[in-house]
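Reader question, answered in our methods column.
A reader sent in the components of a multi-part assembly and asked whether the whole thing could be modeled at once rather than chain by chain. We filled in our standard form and ran it. Here is what they sent:
COMPLEX SIZE: two components
ENTRIES:
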Amino acid sequence: MYHFDWSILAGPSGQLLVSGALMTLQLAACALVLALLLGFCFGVLRWSEIGPLKPVCWLYVEFCRNTPPLVQILFWYFSATVILPASAILVLREYGFAFSAAIFALGIYHSAFVAEIVRGGLNAIPRGQYEAAQAIGLSFLQTVGSILVPQLLRIVLPALVNETVSLTKNTSLALAIGVTEITYQARYIDYAMFRGVEALTAVTAFYLVLCLSIAALGHVLLRLFSRHRRVLA
Amino acid sequence: MNWHLVLTENNVRRLVVGDYPDALGGVALTLLLTAIGIVCSTLLGLLVGYLRFAGTKPLRVVATVYVEFLRNIPLLVLIFWAYFAPPYFGFATSKFLSVLVAMVLFNAAYIAEVVRSGLLSVPVGQIEAARAIGMSSVQQALFVMLPIAAFNTVPAMTSRYITLLKNTSLAFLIGLSELTEIGRQINNRLLTAPVEVYATLLAIYFVLNGALSACMHRLEDRRTFNRVFCFFAR
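And here is the structure of the entire assembly that came back:
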């Protein structure tokens, strides 16, 4: 029978897990920023339906959505040395080469989903809203700032929160290229100290708490965005 | 470009069937995992989703905890649980079975949510009519709610199945020789053509997913759906 020894989580193994958790958080934060930026750009482009860009945006979104994130991570990690110039690789090495590759791959993968969410959100705003804004004489920037964005945020927020949770979970894939995030540390504790069950339990609890807090934060934000909403009977 | 190094006869054969007849791998194993995964996770998802929708209070709580727990941890962690934890307690594990169990449990949680939303989309009048002509709750679920809910959830199911196919790539992290693992082996042996090898992998996954979503798209037509549904109902 296996004897649990939870005290290992207070020792050096615990420190490994904490450093791994910090790495996971960094990875998720950086990839999320990249995914949101790229996703908003591509979402707006797909929505605007500018002729020549249409097939490019379609291919980008479909290709990123229909290929496994893990293979994308491997692709960018192993191909970057061939594709990028040597100077860029030296710069990336400063930040950790595997770390940069993981951010890039996860950012691109999730940007495709964000783009679809944004496009759906923009499509969900009725045309009458733009026409009304024009009719009362709002400028373009005023229309975007006070008509479009508030409605868009409210519509896309729940889906974006789901996407953030999914991105956070996918950071675990970065262990394939040796990023020392929390799942990697759990594997290390498993094969170096034979305490895999304790480590996996800690990791599971970490992800559970992290993802549920992101979801809770999403609820708070949604209430914040909806506070000016008046329901017209 | 070193395409001629990557697309040799031997490499292509390994990508498609792995080291068959010694060991099945490559695209064949990926498709096998996907097929079994889709069937099992759909069945489990139907059960959990139905319990969450119409079960008694304790069953609803159990189903909700199951869904919320599994949706908030990464599949990779689940695969590691299934593969590395049982030996600590004296049970041998097999790679194929571990990946399959983890994938089915994980995807069933998502499919349960899809099923629940499908059940919520069944018009109340249909259920009331079924009750009025004296159908039991099992008959209501199977003959009235299931056909309506299944048709309504085809698009959502498609995206779940595509995710499942993509997720089979995680199996390579415990050394199962499916498509990604074979690609990695080819890359390790060549060392000179990473772009070509991984671009090939991405292309293969893209085509597989395209085929899967094309098949599912045909089910969005009511007549095709009815024909397929009646075939399986028999």
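What stands out: Chain B touches chain A at residues 68-69, 71-77, 80-81, 84-85, 88-90, 162, 166-170, 172-173, 180, 183-184, 187, 194-195, 197-199, 201-202, 205-206, 209-210, 213 (CB under 8 Å). The first helix of chain B runs from residue 3 to 6.
Send us your own complexes using the same form.
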